[in-house]
Design brief:
The termini are far apart. Helix content is about 45%, strand content about 15%. It is globular and about 70 Å long. By secondary structure, the chain is of the alpha/beta class. Bound molecules: erythose-4-phosphate (E4P).
């Protein structure tokens, strides 16, 4: 089984570049990445991206906090393109589970990416509300978990085993911190991993020998010592 690589970015030029790379199967964005990319008008900026990226799946997130408004935004975002997945956070800012939103949209055949997932219990609740005939993604935030000293692997393993019989429901390794996360995601048969562009580029270095890594390390330290003209 192949673990698909998505690129985690909202910058237009980077999406244009990475859209042409065969290693990249899709894209994920979120409101913070859109802000970082300098998007002023959410819709116009997304439509500009979709002119370039019109085949590979791409997720755009709702940013409303009330369920009624989330639904309105989701219908709008869904209308932007056939390759669009609408990202819905698993809870709103009050901590209320977005199950009714997920159920309504998924039953209507709208492709969803349920985001900000940190526990197996959340995966179970999401899974119950998803229509198994509709393509959906469940995004588990590995890096943010690891940043807080928690091991992401057990929740991934349980979530993958819950969804594996449903070909339309995919588990996504989100919040990637390093290239080795791709190896980990492959080892547990995770359907998708989304990676920042810099980390995708590091995959090209896979297979490099320890001997040449040692040499590169020593050479770079020496070069920096010379550049700083260190002396003792
Ligand atoms: C992707 O869908 C997520 O929004 C993203 O991977 C979060 O990554 P971060 O934790 O590096 O912000």
């Amino acid at each position: 089984m192949k673990t698909k690589i998505f690129c985690d970015i909202a910058d237009y030029e980077t999406i244009k570049l990475f859209n042409n790379k065969p290693i990249v199967d899709g894209f994920t964005t979120n409101p913070s990445l859109m802000r970082l990319a300098g998007a002023k008008n959410y819709k116009n900026y997304s439509l500009k991206i979709l002119k370039t990226c019109n085949k590979k799946p791409i997720s755009f997130e709702v940013f409303a906090d009330k369920f009624k408004n989330m639904l309105e935004q989701a219908y709008e975002i869904n209308s932007w393109g056939k390759n669009v997945y609408v990202k819905i956070p698993v809870v709103n800012s009050k901590g209320k589970f977005t199950g009714p939103v997920i159920k309504e949209l998924s039953d209507k055949g709208i492709k969803l990416n349920i985001t900000a997932v940190y526990t197996f219990e959340q995966t179970q609740k999401i899974f119950k509300n998803l229509n198994k005939k509709t393509k959906s993604i469940i995004s588990i935030f590995a890096g943010r978990m690891a940043d807080k000293g928690k091991d992401p692997l057990p929740i991934f393993k349980k979530s993958i085993s819950l969804t594996k019989k449903n070909k339309n429901i995919q588990i996504l390794w989100a919040s990637t911190r390093e290239a080795y996360n791709y190896t980990q995601a492959k080892q547990i048969n995770c359907d998708i991993i989304t990676m920042p562009p810099k980390v995708i580029n590091q995959i090209n270095g896979f297979g490099k020998s320890f001997k040449s890594m040692t040499l590169d390390t020593v050479k770079s330290f020496l070069a920096d010592s010379k550049k700083s003209r260190f002396s003792l």
